[in-house]
UniProtKB/TrEMBL annotation:
This is Adenine DNA glycosylase. InterPro entries: A/G_AdeGlyc_MutY (IPR005760), DNA_glycosylase (IPR011257), Endonuclease-III-like_CS2 (IPR004036), Endouclease-III_FeS-bd_BS (IPR004035), HhH-GPD_domain (IPR003265), HhH_base_excis_C (IPR023170), MIG/MutY (IPR044298), MutY_C (IPR029119). Adenine glycosylase active on G-A mispairs. MutY also corrects error-prone DNA synthesis past GO lesions which are due to the oxidatively damaged form of guanine: 7,8-dihydro-8-oxoguanine (8-oxo-dGTP). Belongs to the Nth/MutY family. One of its GO terms (biological process) is mismatch repair. The gene is mutY. GO terms for molecular function: 4 iron, 4 sulfur cluster binding; 8-oxo-7,8-dihydroguanine DNA N-glycosylase activity; adenine/guanine mispair binding; metal ion binding; oxidized purine DNA binding; purine-specific mismatch base pair DNA N-glycosylase activity. Residues 70-223 form the HhH-GPD domain. The keyword Ubl conjugation does not apply. Its cofactor is [4Fe-4S] cluster. Residues 1-25 are annotated as: Disordered.
Length: 444
């Protein structure tokens, strides 16, 4: 073990110290790092991923960029079928740029993190304009970082693998490898630690074959140096890995414990006409799931943080007053989109106010689910955990016509679709979960 590692050595299973290490590896270890990783990749790496360019004589940046956007916080196995669909429908960046957003959204639906799809579409339009003007894709990391949704690591990956220029990557997989190998135990969410990691990544990246090296590092992190069960015995850099020497590689990377995500509970309204068709809304371009198709959603306010049960009068069977108190006490949040507010208003005007539709027992059931939302659909988002309770309301022709008139008059994009038809729409994954819980009764 190099001398500069011995002073930082800790007993096995001991957590890293709070002060992060800078460059714990010596020059020889750093100089041999890339050759070892590249030799391992040549024999054991993945060489059949559909977006890879290293086996082609002339690389194409488009599939590299497309895959890098899709792979952000998403695993390869999940991305593969989406990538194939995109390439089949949008074989060139110009085809993607010219596509309608609704078509792009339909192809992306279910992959999550939908801002990526928006940026992808905008980025394709930017790239198509650049190619029309210059005759080629951007050639440098700085130029790629001007494209919507492309950060430093994505830009480095595209330049290294798609342009075959010099590019450095430092994504989640790479950070895990580097923190373990070099014993960097600062919080990776902090800018100071991130700066150290980028400096090390730049130092280790070879001036030639940076594309092969980028792919090799991605593979190393994804297949051997995994989050929970690293295969240290098979790792090409295990001889001088600090985390392995300490006997606790899973202690790296160090990341401050995230605060618990707030939970929200919503009614997912199944407004159903006489033919069994359900109302679906296209969500506004801005905000969550922009441009995708959803059921009308009625939110509750911060249920799991504000203890609304202690604030809400007990429901008395068959009394409109108690139901109205339930609504007035902010169990329904005022977070509707305009379309949801129109629906609430029209239903009330047509003699179907939600407070009257729901029985006291249904209200009690929902308020109990604030504590333990059994029977509801859970969907995790970056900023919250979202629970959906499907609730069906049967509508007559007059009520359907009133909704059509009100929604259409406000420019809301909507449609009435059967369950089978809805499966083909650009739905977020959460709505597919709700469809699986479609009630067979319970509507009024």
């Amino acid at each position: 073990m190099p001398d500069n590692l011995k002073s930082n050595h800790r007993m096995p299973n001991q957590q890293p110290q709070s002060a992060h290490h800078d460059m714990t590896q010596d020059h020889a270890a750093c100089a041999s790092f890339a050759p070892r990783v590249l030799a391992w990749f040549a024999e054991h790496g993945r060489h059949d991923l559909p977006w890879q360019q290293h086996h082609k004589q002339s690389p194409d940046p488009y599939p590299v960029w497309l895959s890098e956007v899709m792979l952000q916080q998403t695993q390869v196995a999940t991305v593969k079928p989406y990538f194939a669909r995109f390439m089949a429908s949008f074989a060139t960046v110009q085809a993607l740029a010219a596509a309608d957003w609704a078509d792009v959204a339909a192809h992306w639906a279910g992959l999550g993190y939908y801002a990526r799809a928006r940026n992808l579409h905008k980025g394709a339009q930017q790239l198509a304009a650049i190619i029309a003007e210059t005759g080629d894709f951007p050639q440098t990391v700085d130029e790629w970082q001007q494209i919507a949704g492309v950060g430093q690591s994505t830009a480095g990956a595209v330049v290294a693998m798609g342009v075959r220029g010099y590019g450095v990557i430092c994504d989640g997989n790479v950070k895990r490898v580097l923190t373990r190998w070099a014993g960097i135990d600062g919080d990776i969410t902090k800018s100071a630690t991130n700066r150290i990691l980028w400096q090390l990544a730049e130092r280790l990246t070879p001036s030639t074959d940076s594309g092969l090296y980028a792919q090799a590092m991605m593979d190393l992190g994804a297949t051997l140096c995994t989050k929970a069960k690293p295969a240290c015995l098979l790792c090409p850099v295990n001889a001088d890995c600090v985390a392995r020497a300490e006997g606790n590689p899973t202690a790296y990377p160090v990341k401050a414990k995230a605060a618990a995500r707030p939970r929200q509970l919503s009614l997912a309204l199944l407004l159903t006409d006489a033919n069994g068709r359900v109302l679906w809304l296209t969500r506004p371009d801005s905000g969550i799931w922009g441009g995708l198709v959803c059921l009308p959603l009625l939110f509750y306010q911060k249920l799991f943080n504000q203890k609304p049960l202690e604030q809400t009068p007990a429901a008395t069977p068959n009394t409109t007053q108690s139901a109205q108190s339930w609504q007035d006490n902010s169990l329904f949040a005022h977070q509707y989109n305009a379309a949801e507010q129109i629906i609430v208003d029209v239903l009330a005007h047509m003699g179907k106010p939600l407070a009257d539709i729901m029985t006291a027992s249904q209200i009690a059931d929902l308020t109990e689910q604030i504590k333990a939302p059994q029977g509801s659909v859970s969907h995790g988002l970056t900023h919250m955990e979202w629970w959906f309770k499907p609730y069906q309301i049967m509508l007559d022709d007059d009520q359907v016509n009133a909704l059509n008139h009100a929604l259409g008059g406000q420019g809301v994009t909507f449609g009435w679709h059967t369950l089978a038809e809805a499966q083909t729409l650009a739905l977020p994954k959460a709505m597919h979960k709700v469809l699986a819980q479609m009630p067979t009764d319970g509507g009024n």
